[in-house]
Amino acid sequence: MKLTLMIWRQECCKKDGKMEKYFLDNVEEEMSFLEMLDVLNERLILEGKDPIAFDHDCREGICGACSLVINGVPHGHHKGTTTCQLHMRKFKDGDTIYVEPFRNKAFPVIKDLVVDRTAYDRIMNSGGFVSINTGNPKDANSLPISKINADLAMDAAACIGCGACASSCPNGSAMLFVAAKVSQFALLPQGQPERTKRALAMVRTMDEEGFGNCTNMYECEAACPKNISVRFIARLNREYIRARLSEEKKI
Amino acid sequence: MILDAKIPAGPLAEKWDKHKFEMKLVNPANRRKYKIIVVGTGLAGGAAAASLAEQGYNVEAFTYNDSSRRAHSIAAQGGINAAKNYPNDGDSIYRLFYDTIKGGDFRAREANVYRLAQVSNNIIDQCVAQGVPFAREYGGLLDNRSFGGAQVSRTFYARGQTGQQLLLGAYSALCRQVGLGTVKMHTRKELEDIVIINDQCRGIITRDLVSGKIESHSADVVILATGGYGNVFYLSTNALACNVTATYKAYKKGAGFANPCFTQIHPTCIPVAGDHQSKLTLMSESLRNDGRIWVPKSRDDKRPPNQIPEEERDYYLERKYPSFGNLSPRDISSRAAKEACDDGRGVAASGYGVYLDFADAIKRLGKDKIEERYGNLFEMYERITNDDPYTTPMMIYPASHYTMGGIWVDYNLMSTIKGLYVGGEANFSDHGANRLGASALMQGLSDGYFVLPSTIPHYLASNGPFEKVDTSHPEFKKAEGEVQDKMNKIMSIKGTKTPSQLHKELGNVMWEYCGMARNEAGLKKALELIPQIREEFWKNVNVPGESNDLNVALERASRTADFLEFAEVMVYDALERDESCGSHFRTEHQYPDGEAMRNDEEYAHVAVWEHNGVGKKPIRHKEELNYENVKFAVRSYK
């Protein structure tokens, strides 16, 4: 198939970017979206032009490195799919495809389609863990956990930290990301001792990083390549309120 | 090159405990005075960085990704082994040890493997304590499944994304330390060289992938946990950025490289679809618990799979290996697939594919149960191939997946360079000539959580405190200059081929002559072809743009340049190991039924290569493997 690509090119965060037009012939439908961009990049390199920079690594939909807003939707229109798992059979001959970086104030553009998502790491650094040192914990089976809770915790833990939620949200909120981690630990007995502290710290860091607030638009759930449910946001709200109340009780 | 494995004396089962007690310790107040650099933040690197920081050391961690959570450990799907024996099906530490030695075709070190089996149980406890959501049964206890090469169910899993959950566990432990300020995290920085001062590894040179800046970092100890070199084949199940640069640079600086020809070809990957293919996708070995592998009996059978009646199908693994059947080890299953396809009975458009069929399992267990076990894998398969594995069999074919070879390390995981430790897939230590499924996660975490944090303090206590070295030292400046020269040289060529084209040419040569089956003539041919591609690279590669910028073509070119040198070492190793064992199958050495024929008299050793100049044959050293507990046996899965 033949495609017209409108791709965001930006030298660095300090310079303005713009959309540039590229034509591509012989796109095969078995190609992944990133392989299609590889083909374009190979051509650009042979022409002596700077190839398009984009983040990617595992190409199996699990590392969370790939991003891209495709035709206005983070990771493209194919539901529950990362860009690397989006295949060209989802497009038609003659299509024009718009490709932009993830957009969020907290994700500054580094170059072209590459953005800086270290804000998510900083949220994690503030509380996304169970404080346990490597050592000799008790036998794993001495702590039975109901299958329902374990499965629900796993649903939340499936988050790949790609940033699609914050990129799709009209408010630029990272609530789904934070909710997934807070919920995973709130659902498990291991997470209980730091339950209050974690919810407060992660939400505070999210605000400090410049992410917006949630107004229940549900765009995040629609864009999430791992289909993480907005119900976890409801759980986060509950965790946060609970934490605020119990925190105030101490005073 | 002196290869002292430093295996502790005493009975096998007591070696590690005794060693732990005998190792020296560093006083808690002195720990922060020691700086430890960890390169790579996957299971081994992330776990080691977090655990050493918890003890109080001053740690700096490096990754070329934008976040330590992206390391390729994340892609491991099926599970992690441990000798817990929760299902009461006859498992034990000794059995896990024995299965691993046998699975590795008697080419791994007994003491290391036994320690791995011992530590496996601590790993599960540790990960559960971190909040890793392993699969559970309704009673609330942990669930297990089976993997290839074992007749017990000892594999713990978190749906089809165990690697992700374990990595996120290690990542969260690391985040905690970064938050506490005990680990300094460097993202988007790639190792370009190591620095040796007074015969001791004292730091690294990195390239900042955003600014292109070449930087020096000094330390008292350096840990490489930089993964394997499976991308030497161009197409593999590795992430695209996975490369050999870190371990190859260590080798060039004097670290021995052990068994580079031991490369695992995984039997269940999605077949190649076309020329554009950038990587291959693994379908977890766990699928073989319920999927049955077959090809048509007749060569000309081009009917769609569901029109081929039962009696005209060849379930070749069940036929050839009735006791292990579809769960035969990876090397054996891969070769059997190749054999069927070479015989003209392959499926898929290219003829290089076999069926992995779930029809029977769905009939027996119901679609819901299969979905619960493998839902995400089926979805991934459907996305890539547009076929629905619930209604039509999957098509799979072997692909490069894991490398058992790596930097030679002693029992303490130190390389032949003092102060340079190597963990995870980057070292050679535990898997011999073939790795069993669900053992990579186990080894990565064993090295990272339990071995390195025990052995490095002993090194520091025995040898430290060290003379202060900072990055203004001439050795750092010299190494920085060499790295800058390499980048400038690549940038100046402006030829007519892209780095990927040249990488692909190398990959084709390696797959053809040093892949699933090897022979003397082919390996010699590869030794002629590799230098030609390398020469062309340095004359004809084209990298546009600038080196002091985020330059994706330069990253690729720099990694390819190192693969082009390393590939020769791998081929020499395959050529000089004149036997078949595990993943290393020399067609000259096989039994009449096509099974690998080992030569224990001459090759029951680790081959360790010492660098001798680019383009020159490296020097081969040997570490003899002494089996005190296990007897050599023909590895049979029949």
Describe the structure concisely.
The complex is a heterodimer of chains A (251) and B (638). Chain A is an alpha+beta fold and 251 residues long.
Structure overview:
- The complex is a heterodimer of chains A (251) and B (638).
- Chain A has two domains: 3-111, Beta-grasp domain (Ubiquitin-like (UB roll)), CATH 3.10.20.30; 118-132 and 144-250, Orthogonal Bundle (Fumarate Reductase Iron-sulfur Protein, Chain B, domain 2), CATH 1.10.1060.
- In chain A, helix 2 packs antiparallel against helix 6, helix 5 (175-186) runs antiparallel to helix 6 and helix 6 packs across helix 8 (231-250).
- Chain A contains eight helices and seven strands, in the order E-E-H-E-E-E-E-E-H-H-H-H-H-H-H.
- Chain A is α+β, with helices and mostly antiparallel strands and 251 residues long.
- In chain A, the strands form two sheets. Chain A has a five-stranded mixed β-sheet. In chain A, strands 6-7 form a two-stranded antiparallel sheet.
- With 638 residues, chain B is an alpha+beta fold.
- Chain B has three domains: 35-264 and 402-463, FAD/NAD(P)-binding domain (3-Layer(bba) Sandwich); 266-400, Flavocytochrome C3, Chain A, domain 1, CATH 3.90.700; 474-605, Fumarate reductase/succinate dehydrogenase flavoprotein-like, C-terminal domain (Methane Monooxygenase Hydroxylase, Chain G, domain 1).
- Chain B is 37% helix and 14% strand.
- Chain B has helices spanning 15-22, 28-31, 43-55, 93-103, 110-130, 162-180, 245-252, 316-320, 330-342, 359-365, 367-385, 440-463, 474-493, 499-514, 520-540, 552-576, 600-603, and strands at residues 35-39, 58-62, 80-81, 155-156, 183-186, 189-197, 200-208, 214-218, 221-224, 257-258, 263-269, 292-296, 313-314, 354-357, 394-403, 406-407, 420-422, 605-610, 619-624.
- In chain B, strand 18 and strand 19 (619-624) form a beta hairpin.
- The chains are: A alpha+beta (251), B alpha+beta (638).
- Chains A and B meet through helix 1, helix 2 and helix 3 of A and helix 3, helix 5, helix 6, helix 11 and helix 12 of B.
